[in-house]
Design goal:
There is one protein chain. With 58 residues, the protein is mostly helical. The termini are far apart. It has one helix at residues 17-43. It is rod-shaped, with a radius of gyration of 30 Å. Helices cover 47% and strands 0% of the residues.
Length: 58
């Protein structure tokens, strides 16, 4: 009579290298975009603004 074998523990699987590279690239792009957004936010007071007024029709 054969005794039931204990279940094998699954080995830990690793994430694919291409997927990790893609996530790292996305993270870098998002960080650059966030930095650019903050730079534009702090630079906003330096931007020259003007007022447009309508002229009356004759």
């Amino acid at each position: 009579m054969d005794l039931p074998q204990p279940p094998h523990r699954p080995r830990a699987t690793r994430a694919p290298t291409n997927g990790l590279k893609l996530m790292l690239a996305a993270l870098i792009i998002f960080a650059l975009l966030a930095g650019y957004g903050q730079w534009e936010h702090f630079r906003r007071s330096e931007v020259i603004t003007g007022t447009v007024r309508l002229t009356p029709n004759e």
